[in-house]
Amino acid sequence: MATVFELVRKEAVSLPETPAILIDGEIAKQNIERVQREVSASGCKLRPHIKTHKMPYFAGLQLDAGADGVTCAKISEAEVMAKGGAQDIFIAYPMVGEFRIRRALALQKQIRRLILAVDSIEGALALNVAAEKEGLVCEVRLEIDTGAKRTGVLREHYLELGKQISVLSHLNLTGIYTFKSLILNGKPTEDNEAAAREEAELMNEMAKALRENGVDIREVSAGSTPTGLQAARTGLVTEVRPGTYIFGDWMLTKERCATFEQIAVRLYATVVSTPAPDYAVIDGGTKTFPMDISLEDYPGYAIPIDPATGLPNGNLHLRRMNEEHGILTTENGITGLRVGQLLELIPIHVCTAVNLQNSVFLWENGALRRMPVAARGMLV
Q1: Neighbours of 269 (CB within 10 A)
Q2: Which CATH architecture has domain 4-22+259-372?
Q3: Hey, what CATH class is 42-246 in?
C-alpha cells in the first residue's frame, strides 16, 4: 500500500495549505502496535509520553493498543489528555509552584489515577501541605538523576530524600523514575543497549535500597525512545515511557531506533522565491522548523526529500532561516527548485515540530482531515 507521502509526490493527494505537517495514520498505528507488542512481551508496562503528538486522538490509540496510562510533562497537558478521555496520567515533571499544585489537585478529583513527581524536599513539603488542605493523598514518584543532569535528585542523596518523603502524611511514594536517554557512565554514547542496561541496573539497585530502608517502592519507571525497549527487556524496570516512537524523525534514525520507513510525519513547504540558481526560499522559517538541534550534528534544520526517489536530497540544505523564510542552499550550486513547487521535508526532532503547529493533517482510511494539536503551547 502506498504511503500518503508517495501519493502527494504523485499529486494523487493535495494538501490544502503550507507550511504544514502531514501524518500517515497507518505508519503511526504500526509504530504504536509494534512498540506495545515488544514492551508487553518483555513483561513491562508501557506509559507513552504524549509530548510528541499532544493530541488526545493518538493517546487514545496508544491506550487502546494496551498502554497502561500516559505520561505528560505539564499539568496543562494532563488537563487536555484527561478531557480527551485519559484516566491514568503521570506528570513526569517536578510539581513545583502553587498554581501547578492547585490545578493538579483539582485534576486528581476528576480522573481515576494521577501520579505526580517530586525531586526535592521543598517540593514535597509544599505538595503535602496543599494535599492536606484538600483532604487528599497524592501518589508521587521520586525522580532520580541517572546521568542526564537535568531534573532529579542526585544519586548520593536519593535514599535520604526518599525516606523523608515516605513519612509525609498526604503523599504516597509508590515509585521512582528517571530520564537518561543515550548516556553511559555520565557521557553521551551511541550504544543504546549499554545505556539502557546501565539505566535499568541503576534504577533497580536504588529501588532495592529504598525498600531495604522501609520505603515501599513498587514502580520503577525508565526509558525514553532510544533506550525504552532495551530497558524493558532487562526485566529490571516495571515501566517505560517512550514518546517519539509514535511518529519517528530523523534524529531517531541517527540513534538507530527507527528506520526511514517508520517515519510517519513530513513537513511540507512551498517554494516562494528563487532569486538565484544557488538558493531558494520556502514559506516556512523559524516559526515552522524547530531549531533545537546543532548544525554540527545535522545537515540542516530539516531533511529535504527528492520527489523523484522519495529519499533524502543531499544537494539541498536548510541551514538558514528567518521567522517566515527558509533559505535552501546547495552543494552543487543549483537548487533545481521552481516557484510554486511543493517541497517535502523530514523533521529532525518531531516533538518540537508538532508543537509549532495549531493543527496537522492526518491521512487515514483514504481520507485527509485536519486535526488540532490540542495541547500545543501547554507549558504550565
Answers
A1: 25
A2: Beta Barrel (2.40)
A3: alpha beta
- CA 17 to CA 269: how far, in whole Å? 9
User: What are the backbone angles phi and psi of residue 166, rounded to the nearest 5°?
Assistant: -65, -20
N-to-C CA span, the chain:
41
Distance CA 243, CA 67 (A): 12
Amino acid at residue number 265: V
Say if residues 240 and 225 touch (Cβ distance below 8 Å). Answer: no
**C-alpha closest to that of 354 among 280, 255, 248:** 248
C-alpha–C-alpha distance, residues 75 and 128, integer Å: 17
**Three cell numbers, residue 205:** 539497585
Residues of the chain with CATH 2.40.37.20: 4-22+259-372
Apex CA 315: angle with CA 311 and CA 360, to 5°? 50
**Structural contact between residues 18 and 283, judged by C-beta atoms closer than 8 angstroms:** yes
- Each residue's pLDDT, cut to its tens digit, for the chain (380 residues) gives 899 999 999 999 999 999 999 999 999 999 999 999 999 999 999 999 999 999 999 999 999 999 999 999 999 999 999 999 999 999 999 999 999 999 999 999 999 999 999 999 999 999 999 999 999 999 999 999 999 999 999 999 999 999 999 999 999 999 999 999 899 999 999 999 999 999 999 999 999 999 999 999 999 999 899 999 999 999 999 999 999 999 999 999 999 999 999 999 999 999 999 999 999 999 999 999 999 999 999 999 999 999 999 999 999 999 999 999 999 999 999 999 999 999 999 999 999 999 999 999 999 999 999 999 999 999 99
- Whole-angstrom distance, CA of residue 274 vs CA of residue 343: 13
Distance CA 174, CA 176 (A): 7
Cβ within 8 Å of residue 345, ≥6 positions away: 266, 267, 268, 269, 289, 302, 303, 304, 305, 318
What pTM does this model have?
A: 0.96
Question: CATH 3.20.20.10 occupies which residues in the chain?
Answer: 42-246
DSSP state of 377: T
DSSP string, 85-96: T--EEEEEEE--
DSSP for residue 155: T
Distance from C-alpha of 263 to C-alpha of 311, rounded to nearest angstrom: 12
